[in-house]
Design a protein that fits this description.
- By secondary structure, this protein is α+β, with helices and mostly antiparallel strands.
- It has 4 domains: 222 residues, Metalloenzyme, LuxS/M16 peptidase-like (Cytochrome Bc1 Complex, Chain A, domain 1), CATH 3.30.830; 204 residues, Cytochrome Bc1 Complex, Chain A, domain 1, CATH 3.30.830; 200 residues, 2-Layer Sandwich (Cytochrome Bc1 Complex, Chain A, domain 1); 182 residues, Cytochrome Bc1 Complex, Chain A, domain 1.
- It has 30 helices and 23 strands.
- The strands form 4 sheets. It has a 7-stranded mixed β-sheet, sandwiched between helices. Strands 1-2-6-3-5-4 form a 6-stranded mixed β-sheet, with helices on both faces.
- The N terminus is likely disordered.
């Protein structure tokens, strides 16, 4: 809901037209004209009422996205079914007609699809959507993937034993979602959705119903609502559309329509003239927040007039957000952050509004300040310069989307067709969207924006929701005072907004360029290596994976390790603050305005053992990218207002995190792991308050004073000959000292021995368990791969044993890492949430699985699943700019041979049950294990 409503104009070129021609253009446009849907999409309906969509798309290759969209969600549950729409979704993965028990997930994992990223589903108020990605290079696998959808649509199994096991999993999902925000939401949603059926049908449902419903009650929901007239099969990917259509007709036509179908009602959120206000507090909430929401009836984007509304919505919210951001950067700003939002709340109701994070003791003044910015727009509107910038930003974003039309991922395209089935939204192709944009964007005026704000902020249907912590110093405001506050805002004397910008180039002076003194080509990988006169090294890899994308990363050794450990957070967080102060003559607000209409991002960081600058740009904006890199090195700023805003934001974020019970477990785990080393101590609010930003700026300048220690890696759609002059000027022109630095050993080492700690924190019946295995190890890329492969296989086994068999958790997370710095070492974390009464039992079950792996190894099926997943993932990564950027950067930063990129497949093929067992024995050291058990306070 917090996302802006989908702007239909998928691509655009904009005419910034004069006032004289505007009325003529409006007269030529028929805003009642229907938007043409993409003619390349095959859309049809079977005799039984099932709808289908098929779209051929080559990105990624040999893959297809499959969806089963069901026009039924929790809103359709009977009183005794609350939570069972979501339960039905879960049962789809428990077993079906052709995939008994866990065979369905087994099949999907066996073809390289991971449960979660590529195999998933969701249930909301109004719909349920199943999502899988399938390889398309083998016809039998593709057809079997369609069979999965067919079984979900009409042949899910509801065996009593499986239902009972899934009760526990869903209760654990419910438990996982509990906390301060959930408790506040329980009180605020009935106000936000007052007098509507939605207020009584939260998708997760009621725990007592989940635990006790009768089997037939669940089956009834499936029978009533999983029927062909309420379902659609959607396929997008590297497929033959005609062939897929015949397969859909063949596989789905036999689903029988309901003989006496229940009516699928659409539900309203009733209007209300009075302002509704809810103010709730919780002792585990870390920071205050407020949401001012204006509800309205959702409209569908079907005509050019609707498309214009979408564009006006996006532009108005964008400008308002720029103003709110600018306000948050002011000295003594009354709020930490604020942002405008617009989007669908539920099926027939949408909302516009503002979210505010006030300063801790300034709830009312923070709300007032944010709403004054909205009132300023209501009284004076926006400025022409703001509108022009916003239009240019839309232009660049849509222009780039147009350039990338043949490289658009199927996973993004398929959502348009899902939305057409569920909501009725149009789905134009790129050419149609291009033509609409050329027509519509020039017609948008300041009056259009003013009318939009006036319409959206009408007094009726307004809801004010305030959340705040229960602690000393925070006074809960009275509802009548909040209501009066909005009356006072209308009477305030407000001055019109002044749009301040700097009208000059980022670098208004000449740079003395360096020279390329050495060039080396690595033809096997399409890489060119340059050495510059100032000692900097530049690695270039042009690609055609995207038509208009350049990504880069630069890095140097040293970082915070070369300073005092007492000032670690000053160096690291100080660098983050400085990155938000702007560069050169431009503060951060002015820089954002300068970059409006440009697609470019550059960000510097300092970590414990190095410093880096990374970012991305479109081809058109590559010059600005290089200028920003140059200024990050040579002209960082210290802006006191920006630093105050950063500090307040960090304080608020940290307070929010530290209020969560799980944070206490993380704190304990961190200091215990590293024997209470100075750098392992958790960040606290008082540490943020003590940061010396003058020292931070000095350290930043010192770390970026020597370009000779930096390696720059560029990957993307550039021409090497065209980029060389910019490299010589902006990178070759950087200062250098030839320091030849390395990082220093921090002295952090893992604790030895068996350690077990129990922490009491929190009021919800939530348990949390972490098992951490650590030790020394010889580092290599291959060994790191083997460790992670073993953990992935173990994670599949733990899902089966702890989630599916014992119904003990919603999910078990396993992560393994082999560390290069400061010495060779390893760390394995196994984590899960559960009923606190079952922590020890389930932890013992995890250990039993680890012991079984070490003593008896894996069955080949688990190893084969990991191998297939890695092969499929690698196929996709080989066509991604960011994957190559990471591989090349790792190679040069750790002096790893580039040919290890080729060895990856050999490593995958070398995986065997025997190898996995040997890896497990090496790294699961019972004598070096930390166990953390988080229990509620009572």
């Amino acid at each position: 809901m917090k996302k802006a409503k989908y702007l239909l104009l998928a691509v655009s070129f904009i005419y910034i037209c004069t006032a004289a021609s505007l009325s003529a253009q409006n007269a030529q446009i028929n805003f009642n004209e229907k938007i043409k849907n993409d003619p390349s999409v095959i859309k049809g309906k079977l005799k039984n009422g099932l709808t289908y969509y098929i779209k051929a798309n080559k990105k990624p290759e040999k893959r297809a996205e499959l969806r089963l969209a069901v026009n039924a969600g929790s809103i359709l549950e009977d009183d005794n079914q609350q939570g069972l729409a979501h339960f039905c979704e879960h049962m789809g993965f428990r077993g079906t007609k052709h995939f008994k028990k866990q065979e369905l997930v087994d099949f999907l994992e066996s073809i390289g699809m991971s449960f979660g990223p590529e195999v998933n589903a969701f249930t909301s108020f109004d719909e349920t959507v199943y999502m899988i990605q399938i390889p398309t290079d083998k016809q039998d696998i593709l057809e079997k993937g369609l069979l999965v959808l067919r079984d979900w649509a009409g042949d899910a199994n509801f065996e009593n034993e499986d239902i009972d096991k899934e009760r526990g999993v869903i209760v654990e999902e419910w438990r996982l979602g509990r906390g301060a925000e959930a408790r506040i939401q329980d009180k605020q949603l009935p106000v936000m959705l007052k007098n509507s059926h939605y207020a009584e049908r939260i998708p997760i449902g009621k725990k007592e119903i989940i635990e006790s419903f009768k089997y037939d009650t669940l089956k009834k929901f499936y029978k009533d609502w999983y029927r062909p007239d309420l379902m659609a099969v959607i396929i997008t990917g590297d497929v033959d559309p005609k062939q897929m259509e015949q397969l859909i007709i063949k596989k789905f036509s036999d689903i029988k329509p309901a003989s006496k179908p229940r009516k699928r009602n659409l539900f309203d959120v009733p209007p209300h003239k009075e302002t509704l206000c809810t103010i709730e507090s919780d002792k585990e909430l870390g920071s205050s927040s407020a949401e001012i929401m204006y509800k309205y009836n959702t409209y569908l984007t079907l005509t050019l007039g609707d498309a214009k509304k979408d564009a006006i919505n996006e532009i108005a919210c964008s400008i308002l957000n720029e103003r709110l951001f600018e306000k948050s950067r002011e000295a003594n700003a009354p709020f930490v952050s604020a942002s405008a939002f617009e989007g669908r709340l539920v099926r027939k109701t949408s909302a516009f509004g503002i979210d505010v994070t006030p300063k801790e003791n300034n709830i009312e003044s923070g709300i007032k300040a944010a709403m004054l910015e909205l009132e300023k727009v209501r009284k004076f509107g926006f400025t022409q310069t703001e509108l022009d910038r916003a239009k240019s930003q839309v232009l660049r974003e849509k222009e780039q989307a147009f350039k990338e039309q043949d490289k658009t991922e199927s996973g993004m395209l398929i959502n348009y067709y899902v939305n057409n089935f569920l909501y009725g939204e149009s789905y134009p192709d790129f050419e149609e969207s291009y033509n609409m944009s050329k027509q519509i964007l020039p017609t948008i005026t300041l009056k259009d924006l003013a009318d939009y704000i006036t319409e959206r902020t009408a007094e009726q249907n307004k809801v004010i929701s305030i959340s705040l912590p229960e602690k000393d110093g925070i006074v809960k405001p009275l509802k009548e005072n909040i209501t009066k506050l909005f009356e006072e805002i209308k009477k305030e004397k407000i001055e019109a907004y002044v749009d301040k910008t700097i009208n000059e180039d980022l670098i208004p002076y000449e740079i003395v360029p360096g020279k390329i003194v050495e060039e080396k080509k690595i033809d096997k990988y399409g890489i060119t290596e340059l050495k510059l006169s100032n000692g900097a090294r530049v690695i270039l890899k042009p690609t055609d994976f995207k038509n208009d994308e350049i990504v880069f990363k630069s890095f140097s050794k040293g970082g915070a390790s070369l300073g005092s450990q007492d000032d670690f957070y000053t160096y690291v967080l100080g660098a983050s603050a400085i990155s938000q102060c702007g560069i050169g003559k431009f503060d951060n607000t002015q820089l954002k305005k300068y970059l409006t209409g440009k697609i470019v991002h550059v960000s510097p960081t300092i970590n414990i053992n190095g410093e880096s600058i990374s970012g991305s740009a479109s081809i058109k904006n590559i010059d600005d990218m290089f200028k920003m890199v140059y200024l990050c090195f040579t002209s960082p700023r210290k802006d006191d207002d920006a630093i105050k805003a950063f500090t307040q934001s960090m304080r608020t974020t940290l307070q929010s995190i530290k209020a969560m019970p799980e944070y206490a477990a993380g704190d304990t785990l961190s200091v215990t792991t590293y024997n209470y080393h100075k750098l392992s101590k958790p960040l606290d609010v008082d540490v943020i308050d003590k940061i010396d930003f003058n020292k931070a700026l000095d350290f930043y300048k010192e770390r970026f004073a020597d370009a000779s220690g930096f390696t720059f890696v560029f990957v993307g759609s550039f021409d090497i000959n065209k980029i060389k002059p910019m490299i010589e000027k902006y990178i070759g022109g950087l200062p250098f000292l030839n320091r030849n630095e390395n990082f220093k050993d921090s002295g952090m080492r893992y604790a030895k021995g068996k350690i077990e700690k129990e922490i009491k924190k929190g009021i919800e019946p939530k348990g949390y368990v972490v098992l951490r295995y650590t030790g020394d190890a010889k580092w290599s890329t291959q060994e790191a791969y083997y460790l992670n492969a073993m953990i992935e296989a173990l994670q599949i086994k733990l899902r089966e044993a702890i989630r599916e068999e014992k119904s003990g958790t919603y999910g078990v997370s396993g992560v393994g890492s082999l560390n290069y710095y400061p010495v060779g070492s390893y760390q394995i974390d196994i984590e899960f949430g559960c009923d606190p009464a079952r922590e020890k039992e389930l932890a013992a079950a995890v250990v039993a699985q680890i012991d079984s792996l070490c003593n008896y190894g894996f069955k080949p099926v688990y190893v084969d699943k990991v191998k297939e997943t890695h092969k499929k993932t690698r196929e996709k990564e080989l066509k991604e700019n960011n994957s190559w950027l990471n591989w090349i950067s790792r190679s040069y930063s750790l002096d790893i041979p580039l040919n290890e990129i080729d060895e990856y497949n050999d490593w995958v093929n070398s995986l065997t049950p025997e190898l996995m067992q040997a890896v497990a024995k090496k790294y699961f050291n019972k004598d070096n294990c930390i166990k953390i058990f988080l229990q509620p306070e009572k």
